[in-house]
Amino acid sequence: MTNNLRFKTSKFIDETYRVSFKFNNKTYFGFKGDTLASALLANGIHLVGRSFKYHRPRGIMTSGSEEPNAIIQLHDNSSRTEPNVRATEVEIYEGLVASSQNCWPSVNFDIGGINNLLSPILPAGFYYKTFMWPASFWEKYEYFIRKSAGLGKSPKVADPDIYEHKYIHCDVLVIGAGISGIMAAKTAAKNGFKTLLVDEKSYLGGSSIYDNSEYSKVNNQITSSWLEKEINEISKLENLEIKTRTSVAAFHGYNFLLARENLTDHLPINQRENKVRQRLLKIRAKKVITATGSIERPLIFDNNDRPGILLSSAIKRYIDLYGVACGENNILFTNNDTAYETAMSLIQRGIKINAIIDNREQIDSKISYEVEKNNIKIYKGYTVIDTYGYRRINKISIMKLSKDGQKVIGDKTKLNCDCLGVSGGWTPAVHLFTQSGGKLKFREEDQVFIPNVYPSDQISIGSCNGDFGLEEIIKNTLSSIKKFLDIDNSEYKTVETISGLNQSKRNIWLLPSDKSIGKTKSFVDYQNDATAKDIKLALREGFRSIEHVKRYTTTGMGTDQGKLGNMHALGIISETAGTKMGEHGTTTFRPPYTPLTFGTIVGRNVGEFFDIFRRTPIHDWHVANNAKFENVGQWKRAWYYPKDNENMHQAVQRESKAARDSAGILDASTLGKIDIQGTDASEFLNRVYTNAWSKLAVGKCRYGLMLNEDGMVYDDGVTTRLSENHYIMTTTTGGAANVLGKLEDYLQTEWPELDVYLSSVTDHYATISVCGPNSKKIVSKVIPDLDFSDEKFTHMSFKNAKIDNIKCRVMRISFTGEHSYEINIQANFGKSVWEKCMEAGKDFNITPYGTETMHLLRAEKGFIIVGQDTDATLTPIDLQMDWIVSKKKYDFIGKRSLYRSDTIREDRKQLVGLLTENPEEVLEEGAQIVADIKKSPIEMLGHVTSSYYSPNLKKSIALGVVKGGKNMLGQKLIIPMENKNINVTVADPVFLDKEGERLNAKL
Amino acid sequence: MFLINCPFCGEREQSEFKAGGEAHIVRPKQPTELSDDEWAEYLFMRKNIKGIQFERWNHVHGCRKWFNMVRDTSNDQIKAVYKMGEKPPVK
Ligand SMILES: [Zn+2]
Asked: Which chain B positions have a beta carbon within 8 Å of A709's beta carbon?
């Protein structure tokens, strides 16, 4: 381990604040201000991981969010553990623990590395081609692939951190606080725009903030000094909010953006207590200025992936910002002037540069002359053809490029190095722009895609817009902001710039080699181990569209979305296929720009807040009385009430029997209730229900069935005529919101002439249903003033009443087939009325029952449950409910569909009852129904929809749908199960009291 | 995520709305007079255009009113919104 890799010249590093951290179980030291990557490099560590497919040793390659290799697991073996974190983005803190991914047993000795030796047989599409056959082997292959690949470990326990969401509305959002972003934010804020400036880094200023070179100056000041003053100024602006450590993840239409603000990840664990870790910002901006900068391109040559090979701009950032030298014997390899800036930064600190390899024959810039003056050998018109060194680069070989750049010529020269900085020029970071729906154009002269057509009120400025020179950036930024914000004054009078760089570049997507392509490993996508050879193979095999090549070779499909290599993939495709860049499409960048944690996405919506749930006014009583609950839509409904050690079956058998033998009580408050008023209310009901409503007398109730326009059953329930123009409709629990929506839709769009008003009153009433032969005795004790005589209060009618001076509605309706009453009372009195009923029913063994018993009781009567016995493919005729379909009415929703050629087919699935040969055998709901098990393939006739053991009938009963079932009464069918076939007989779906005598039964 | 200008409430977030399919399909006044094919045309046939499309939307978590929208489905630009029963303001 060496210490002389750290140079004490960086103001961004606090050298008085030493930080210890663990990497792969070993303790290291860094300083406050370091990233994990800079701290590792300062400790001489390049090798941090293994590649995904070939398990090749990989090192830190970049200094930002584009990092493909240095992907680590944070907080190993803790509830905070997080895979796939880029070491280049992690700010170190005391006690940080991190480890390498993709390597077992260790990063230095990796068993999967055998794949590297096997790589000739692991070409593109290898997994698709090999592991798809024979199909029965897939399980074995999958095991093998998962074990040897695997991108990190997911946590096994709940995340202890807090996350939240926040909405932000602003006039102008500026993404990226580099030189152009800062100028834009200042101009916007000073001109009265409410502005938000965000940057993914912990500091402002982008790469210009450490640009201390004499070769780029603004207003005669070193760029970084000028920019510092600017930053100082904007930090005091009232109209401007600045958020650092905030990465925009998604840019959606209509300037809606999602950003992740990181609040505690840079703090020691003990300082994170009770703080929000990450915040998902939901930003709606009137205008968006994208200033996301550009990403340096690597160069594509044989073995371009060894640890110690970095982007030249990363080497510059590590030395200028963190004071860390990436190597002691450096070579730079470039096709443009960028590497010379890096060279100057190294030279200024006396760090050795062995050579510069430049693709260009002619280099004509002040900065290159200055580098040459420092006695650094520049190989002009040369290329690197190979590299050496297993865990760290130690040598390269170079050759001269032919004039056309297609071949290498002359002799091979070997040069020693421990670090190779590469620069292939710059790629504008257009990811967010394309996410927003923006269209790109290709600029031939320097081979870049730049924004062309904006889909919303936004612009791109700076190098993400293809402006690379300092002068160009500043000049174009100022003019486009003025135009974009429609202002006269840009806040900048004259900005003079000096730059020693020249923008010339010799772009060769795939550099030539002295070997045939088949013998090279020139990585295009480092994270997914896709090489130039793979792309060429895909083209040979006939793939053309970039999206297909991408999927076949997995180029650009890693967590980094190929931020480094996508351009080269496109370039190689266009060169090989002889087409223009972009002709085969550009790959689509999808959100998120950098990965988001699940915590950020869900925010506070965890645990009991994951989804809302609704409780009835009687809920607390159910809880106090040991109810088990079932979720019905958003409702918590009492499911059954086990006594002593009863299981569900035992409880339901007891409850069902009590309800028919004496009395049962059900909380039916969840049923949807819609208040319908208006002079056309009757006509409206006529149109939405299948049966006739005009003649329903005031004070009477009627069951109604509602269809979709396609004739399929949609919902059902009882509706009561409260007065001439006033009805109350009940719907199923789950269907309430949709029924209201559907009724409103028809009223507003098809029948606006009807005088009808709808209000949802589901939550306003508690509904208590008391059933059984003793029900009348019980309710008349609760409401002594009401005449409950059968003559005065008939089945299917309703009465207004009072309980202790509180108005209530009592309906005599039944879903169980028993004599029963339903009390509807203002919700807040629900629990006390329930308790009154319990008290009044004490002598009659009144038994609270839940939804399961309700389902059993109605099944005995053959009453359907919409959504359980129906599934939007059944008409009322299929349900054998012809009786409810009016023949007289001219029209109602769905009527015309009931005699379409398809709906009148005799062999449609129809609802039937099913009785098992063995009365003790209870069928499984969802089980298939067949007639002939010898036929192959077996014809499926239908399935079981409801099935119970009836304690009242002392046998198993079931409902099901069967093709042509209506005409199969008495016929034997088979339910094939995993280990047996169950014989059943088709029966009438009404199993109990077909005559309906129990509705008036009393004891 | 669109910003939708509800004709009754003004500009609101898309999450407050529900899309309701193609607009200007009038429910036949006399369904019983229609052949199976004519009824099927009303019931099932929808255009799903790439480009300018006329749609029904409902401000379901707001005023609950239905209204019409002209939207370019190729780029999600909303060209116009107008009330039920009104003529589309653009072609
Ligand atoms: Zn509205």
From this structure: 27, 43
